[in-house]
Design a protein that fits this description.
Helix content: 10-25%
Order of helices and strands: EEHEEEEEEEHE
Number of strands: 10
Shape: globular
CATH topology: Peptide Deformylase
Number of domains: 1
Radius of gyration: 16 Å
Strand order of the largest sheet: 3-4-5-8-9
Number of helices: 2
Low-confidence stretches: 1-14
Oligomer: single chain
CATH class: Alpha Beta
CATH superfamily: Peptide deformylase
CATH architecture: Alpha-Beta Complex
């Protein structure tokens, strides 16, 4: 059963899966920094579940952040383990509340896409290694190092929490932005 809460559509606990609609650019929530989660309660845990369901339903998606489904809280999920770029170097499904990057190093340019900018991809320079800290839905604080494609995906999702899109990271919109051919 679906219910409206604060102007947003939410599922009741009896449903098994909730794939939420993706907010697309230029919706202003995508450009607004998110609020810190003060308390992890059932509503926040349900939000995490909805993000996972939405990520798995998305074409080629390796992550989703809460503003992409219309919720301005510092929550995102990432799983690069099924992607050809991340299958050999990953930490599995990451359920992140209030994530923060503690350190970064290295740099590489990679082509990025985003469900919130469905018609374009772009070349973005990101750090190739980072140290990350976040809280899991059960309250456990986790800290680890990520590298390669997983580090890039983490930075992409954390940008969403800061009100940034990959479009904001492209050095040149003339030479670094491309019309998407298809989702794979």
């Amino acid at each position: 059963m679906w219910r409206f809460r604060c102007g947003l559509l939410h599922r009741s606990r009896s449903d098994d899966m909730a794939v939420r609609n993706i907010v697309t650019y230029p919706n202003q929530i995508l450009k607004t920094p998110c609020q810190v989660v003060e308390q992890i309660d059932d509503w926040v845990r349900q939000l995490v579940d909805d993000l996972v369901d939405t990520m798995h339903a998305g074409p080629g998606s390796v992550g989703v952040a809460s503003p992409q489904i219309g919720v301005s809280l510092r929550v995102c999920v990432i799983d690069v383990s099924k992607n050809r770029h991340g299958k050999d170097n990953n930490h599995g499904l990451l359920l992140m509340i209030n994530p923060e990057i503690l350190a970064r190093s290295g740099a590489a340019v990679m082509r990025e896409g985003c469900m919130s900018v469905p018609d374009y991809t772009g070349d973005v320079e990101r750090s190739t290694e980072l140290t990350l800290r976040f809280t899991e839905p059960d309250g456990t604080v986790r800290e680890f190092e990520a590298s390669g494609f997983e580090a890039v995906a983490i930075q992409h999702e954390l940008d969403h929490l800061d009100g940034l899109l990959f479009l904001d990271r492209i050095a040149s919109l003339k030479t670094g932005l491309f019309r998407r051919k298809s989702y794979k």
